[in-house]
């Protein structure tokens, strides 16, 4: 990858991806969840494997993904000491007066589209996925 030619903007599947939040973040992955209303479920996840650099709020709305600028790529490369395999840039509404610029560098990116419940639901099928904090009620 040439520093002068930044990565392309990511392409999301069709859908209503207005609400976003950090679903999980540990040393091995950063998981951003998206949907039209995150109260009950989300239907899209951006899973950044081995995140190297993260600059974004924990909750944001209506992101506009774009190709990182050459300056952003140079800055992250200088800070990391290597060119990141994945560099995602976007502008988002973080409930301030102006959009915030966000940048995430990682070893890899997976885009997962599936319904994930954010509350316990009795009778959910065995293949139904729940958000990490959802636990069945005590018996």
SSE topology sketch:
Elements: E1 19-26, E2 29-35, E3 41-55, E4 59-66, H1 70-80, E5 86-93, E6 100-117, E7 129-130
Parallel strand pairs: 6-7
Antiparallel strand pairs: 1-2, 1-4, 2-3, 3-6, 4-5, 5-6
Protein traits:
mainly beta; single chain; 139 residues; 1 helix
Summed up, what is this model?
By secondary structure, the chain is mostly beta strands. It has one helix at residues 70-80; strands at 19-26, 29-35, 41-55, 59-66, 86-93, 100-117, 129-130.
How many individual domains? 1
First-residue to last-residue Cα separation: 54 Å
Structural class: mainly beta
General form: globular
User: What's the assembly state of these chains?
Assistant: single chain
What are the secondary-structure elements, in order, as H or E? EEEEHEEE
**Share of residues in helices:** under 10%
Nearest-integer average pLDDT:
90
Largest sheet: 6 strands, antiparallel, barrel
Tally of helical runs: 1
